[in-house]
Amino acid sequence: MKAKELIELNNEKREFLNEENEKKYDDMLVYIRLASTKSEQQTEEILLELLDHVLLAQEEGKTIHDVFGDDLKAYSQEVIEEIPEDTKKKQVKFAIRLIFLFLGVTSLFSGIINAGLHYIFGFGEGTSTFHVGSSIAIIVSTTLIAFGMVYFVLEWLKSSLFKEEKKSERKEFFQLWIIMTLVIGVFFCIYYFMPSFGAEFSLPILVFIPIGIVLYGISYVLKD
Amino acid sequence: MKLRSQLLKGVLEGCILAIIQQGPTYGYELSIKLHEQGLTNISEGSIYPILLRLQKEQFIEGQMKPSPSGPRRKYYYLTATGQEALKNFATHWENIKGPVDSIIKGGHES
């Protein structure tokens, strides 16, 4: 069975858990899935086994704590440590795919927004002028920040699991909002304050739309 | 009980190999069998990290198969390397069991 089929089977079976067990199993599932460098196949196989076990134990009136102990986070960590690592090749492919995806989406949207502003509202110019050096520096630094952001969100998600009482949603939303605003601010600062260096060249803004589509297409092809 | 001790982990690995040798077994069944043999102070879930490790070392292999009661389960089989590992474990255990027993009992008597 492929990982995708295992995930579907897991989704179907999870509905048979009672409320308490489901809430706690879900936390384990998310926590174990977020261990991103592990083999997806092995991860899904063990997740389904753990679910099967809880389901059978539930029929006998046992709770998830009777099966995995009091500290579900420590138990999940123990499981994660034994799941084989994904091959380096797959990890690199995944990272490259994310880079293409990020650059593709950025290019597509900046193309659409700038073209819209220029051709519909008459703002800005029909061509953008770049400096090779600054452009490369901007692309590299924003890509690194985007990766840092993904890492941060994953850690943030992990920290919100296995809590008896969930943090207040309003507070969490506010925290996330501030952080997102800061990151977007940093993106703009990099863009505006990057000194111009390297050879100069101009491109019509419409070109960014097909470039974006091509980059997105590459990321899609890399999706196995 | 958590499996903090390496000794217990090693012993449990040997026991799991021995049970799987008797025939293909799935996780829940395995934990029941360990309990029936009297290993009742081991939490049911503690077998899964061990099963993962035994697979990594290629002592056992998992296969999704329909169970007699219907749903497909992951059954574990012993590999040739696993047979060898089990044999080694049995020998080590045989060598250590007697001496450890007599040392502990001797300590009590004196």
In angstroms, what separates the terminal alpha carbons of chain B?
32 Å
Q: What's the CATH architecture of chain B? A: Orthogonal Bundle
> Rough shape of chain A?
elongated
Largest interface by Cβ-Cβ < 8 Å: A-B, 24 and 21 residues
Name the structural class of chain A.
mainly alpha
Q: Could you tell me the mean pLDDT of chain B?
A: 87
Task: Write a structural description.
The complex is a heterodimer of chains A (224) and B (110). Chain A has 224 residues and is mainly alpha-helical. Helices cover 72% and strands 4% of the residues of chain A. Chain A has helices spanning 3-14, 19-33, 40-59, 64-68, 72-82, 88-119, 132-159, 169-193, 208-221; strands at residues 127-131, 200-204. In chain A, strands 1-2 form a two-stranded antiparallel sheet. In chain A, helix 2 packs parallel to helix 5. With 110 residues, chain B is of the alpha+beta class. Chain B has a single domain, classed as Winged helix-like DNA-binding domain superfamily/Winged helix DNA-binding domain (Arc Repressor Mutant, subunit A), CATH 1.10.10.10. Helices cover 60% and strands 15% of the residues of chain B. Chain B is built from 4 helices and 3 strands, in the order αβααββα. In chain B, strands 1-3-2 form a 3-stranded antiparallel β-sheet. At the A-B interface, helix 3, helix 4 and helix 5 of A face helix 2, helix 3 and strand 3 of B.
Quick tags:
heterodimer, A: 224 residues, mainly alpha, two-stranded antiparallel sheet, 9 helices, 2 strands, 72% helix, B: 110 residues, alpha+beta, Arc Repressor Mutant, subunit A, three-stranded antiparallel beta sheet, 4 helices, 60% helix
How are the elements arranged and paired?
The complex is a heterodimer of chains A (224) and B (110).
Chain A: H1 3-14, H2 19-33, H3 40-59, H4 64-68, H5 72-82, H6 88-119, E1 127-131, H7 132-159, H8 169-193, E2 200-204, H9 208-221
Antiparallel strand pairs in A: 1-2
Helix pairs in contact in A: 1-3, 2-3, 2-5, 6-9, 7-8
Chain B: H1 6-21, E1 25-26, H2 27-36, H3 47-56, E2 60-66, E3 72-78, H4 80-109
